[in-house]
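user: can you give me the structure for this one chain? tokens are fine.
assistant: on it. calling the predictor now.
[tool input]
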Amino acid sequence: MQKLISPKLKKQLKQYEATNVTYGLYCKQCGHKYDLHEFESGYTVKDGCECENIKQAKATTERRRKEYEQRKIDEMFNQSQINPSIKKATVNNYQPTNESQQKAKDVAVEYVKTFSLDNPKSLIIHGSIGTGKSHLAFAITKALKNQGYKVAFMHIPKLMNRIKTTYKNDASETVEDIIKQLSDLDLLVLDDIGVDDSAHAISKMEDIVDNRAGLNNIYTTNLTGKELEKDLNWQRVYSRMQLNGKRLNVIGEDYREGDAW
């Protein structure tokens, strides 16, 4: 004996039944014929149209391309050699101890939320050792990397050592190669500006910063703006760093780490 469907169940099933079906339509975008199913809720289904599948396939290809490019960046710039003290850094586990550190954290959150390739901006984070400059800069790098952007976090001494290896007779790359690679990033973080104040380091920093003009950059430094402007050689570099830039002064005792998000 066939069991009757209750009125309530019939009503629930009705939402899955098309109220109108138009057959044999043609999609100019994908070139396929399709049947248009229209539902009472306003939802429509193009049965046979391949546009959505093509869109998803393109998105998958683009995601894989970005992942491949980031792996190459990590290999080129030894991102695995990041200082262990900041490897687990996130914006949330940066615990401010004063107003300037709280402001720096707020700016870091805003930087990630509003990050754009069309409207590039730079951050210059001044502060003494232990105030969390590198923590916040690396946290921003990680957050944007997770969003699929091409990013690199470079500690200045390690970057200068990398550049010096290009002077060897058997070097596999040139200084120009490195500068070009850095110029192609969506975001470059240069950590510890001024820790190497040799004429060679300042000269190369000028080239790198000049090639990053008008792009997204983050610079951290233990030096104040006055200290950087006092030196004629650093003046040129610092002037370029400030293009589309916001300066932050982070002061106080060491920040405390809490739970990661």
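assistant: here you go. The longest strand covers residues 20-26. The first helix runs from residue 7 to 14.
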